[in-house]
Design a protein that fits this description.
Layout lengths: L2 H23 L10 H13 L3 H10 L4 H17 L6
Helix pairs in contact: 1-2, 3-4
Length: 88
Amino acid sequence: MSRRDRIWRGVGVILAVGACGVAAAMDRSALAVMVFPIALLGLTLMINGKRVVVALRAERRGHAHTAEAIHAVRLRRTRRRTDPIRSR
């Protein structure tokens, strides 16, 4: 795991724990629902790390295409790495 990936995952932990702490402090308040998206974003960051942009794009496109979108991005990335550099 790279340093950048650990940083993204750490930010996700901070967001999720912070949002859950705020929701717990607002005991039985309707405003606790307002921090729910922040907790979900934190969970996404914890799970996906630096690939969070790909995961958010896939979620925006719809659940049925999530795996396909992530797989397509990974294929493009590996193809770029294996293509020889062409000199002019």
